[in-house]
Amino acid sequence: MQLTQEQIIAIKKQRGLLDYSITQLANEINVDRHTLSNIIKRGQRKVNKPTFEKLNNWIIDQYTTIK
């Protein structure tokens, strides 16, 4: 599956707002830190379906949950 550019931007933006390292964010989302690093640093868009779903659900949660 392919992440959109908007999804990648949302992940980067929320990471910055939360002031999380890649490892902290990967642990929160429950995805591999190397995969997340490739998405954030290299703009990797192709991910497997479970990773796509975890990332997408996390983005939705971040924008719909007041913390």
Please give the share of residues in helix: over 70%
Per CATH, what is the topology? 434 Repressor (Amino-terminal Domain)
**CATH class call:** Mainly Alpha
Gyration radius from CA atoms, angstroms:
11 Å
Structurally, how many domains make up the residues?
A: 1
Strand and helix order? HHHH
Number of strands: 0
What do these coordinates show?
InterPro entries: Cro/C1-type_HTH (IPR001387), Lambda_DNA-bd_dom_sf (IPR010982). GO terms for molecular function: DNA binding. This is DNA-binding protein YlxM (UPF0122 family). It comes from Lactobacillus colini. It is a single chain. By secondary structure, the chain is mainly α. It has one domain (5-64): 434 Repressor (Amino-terminal Domain) (Orthogonal Bundle), CATH 1.10.260. Helix content is 72%, strand content 0%. The longest helix is centred in the last third of the chain and has 16 residues, at 49-64. The model has no long low-confidence stretch (mean pLDDT 94).
